[in-house]
Q: What sequence folds into this?
């Protein structure tokens, strides 16, 4: 399964550490982020993003995920554990935090371009994020 180099990481104090694509304000409290296009084969899975957050005591904070649009396939999450990098938090560096991996599975008969969208949020941030990911499915 291919995994994007982009991670979405939420941490206190109410800061969002993102290495994502272009962000723009959609409405008050909601930011839309468009990521790079993924090229994949019909029936395959692609890891789109890691979602995890923690508090000042290095305890996991839930990240909410909602699939909004996933034509030509299925968008879902799988649980996982992720190590906090020292660049993300000096206090929690090296700690393992439970989270989710966002995955898109293309339909077996899918082909052409599509865009998947999902919403993520956490009580660590004031904003919700709508992630938009272009996907090209071809043999």
A:
């Amino acid at each position: 399964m291919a995994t994007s180099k982009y991670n979405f990481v939420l941490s206190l104090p109410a800061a969002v550490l993102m290495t994502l694509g272009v962000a723009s304000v959609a409405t008050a409290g909601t930011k839309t982020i468009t990521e790079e296009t993924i090229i994949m084969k019909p029936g395959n899975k692609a890891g789109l993003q890691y979602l995890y957050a923690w508090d000042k005591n290095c305890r996991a904070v839930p990240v909410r995920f909602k699939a909004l649009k996933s034509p030509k396939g299925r968008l879902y999450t799988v649980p996982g554990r992720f190590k906090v990098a020292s660049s993300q938090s000096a206090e929690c560096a090296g700690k393992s935090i439970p989270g989710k991996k966002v995955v898109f599975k293309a339909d077996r008969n899918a082909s052409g371009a599509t865009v998947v969208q999902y919403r993520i949020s956490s009580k660590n941030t004031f904003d919700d994020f709508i992630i938009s990911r272009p996907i090209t499915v071809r043999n």
About this structure: The chain is about 0% helix and 60% strand. The first strand starts at residue 2 and ends at 3. The chain has a mean pLDDT of 82.
